[in-house]
UniProtKB/TrEMBL annotation:
It comes from the Eukaryota. Pfam families: F-box. Coiled coil: none annotated. Residues 20-60 form the F-box domain. InterPro entries: F-box-like_dom_sf, F-box_dom, Leu-rich_rpt_Cys-con_subtyp, LRR_dom_sf. This is F-box domain-containing protein.
Amino acid sequence: MEVMEDITNAKRGSKLVQDWTELTWDCLINIFSRLSMEERWNGPMLVCKTWMNLCNDPLLNSVFDLETWFLSSTETCNRWSFEFSEQVDSMLMSVVDRSKGGLKEIRVRHCTDQSLLYVAERCPNLELLWVKHCPNVTVESLQMIALKCTKIMELDMSSSYAISPQCLEMFGKNCKNLQVVKRNYVSPSEVSMFESYENYMENFPTFIIGNVYVHAIQSSMHQLKHLEVRYLTMTDKALASICKKCPKLEYLDLFGCPKLTMDGVINSTSTLKNLKELKMPEFTA
């Protein structure tokens, strides 16, 4: 681990710092901030009491990010168990306590309403929330976050099927700085792969009513700059409404939206003067 090697080199070669115990708290904070959360928990926290206390500093607990671990881990089956969700909840609530109200970013999968209700009551400064692939996250917790965490700027609720369009609308109405929204669905070709996981597809709609989500977006999210709605069954008319009501869009992902036509997409998005990147559906000939 490069950071740990730097500390060892400081011990051996530096004329200014002969021993790691002479490093200031701020210096150690700077060093440990370059480690991922998992690296801190599995390394420095186990070295000594001083380093454990340092890893509990709110400055090192403003971000809870498990996304890198989820993407790199090859073990997937256990993630869908109740026991695994309990562990994720416990980790998230632990960081909430350590942050002392300073938690600003959450990137998580497989958590439940329990930990998100805990977040809603204690994290008024939250700015980013990713709750992807969370079958046990419902309107109950996200409505509370929408009401109490009004500084949120980025929201990702992709592939979490117990969350309603009305919940999305609440975020738009209460979080006036919301600029990034991701509400992607699982590809129809991948549905069967997830059906074996208990409860995950329980709330998956047999028909994704895309225009209902469109209403939630266009009615309350006029400041949006980034929107992802993969595999949503919106119509050309609904897309035109989004483009009209959300003129600041710079990034728009429509991949897999089966009801859109090429003419409809081109005509609607031509009004977006700030659009920098557009991901089109794969149109059939």
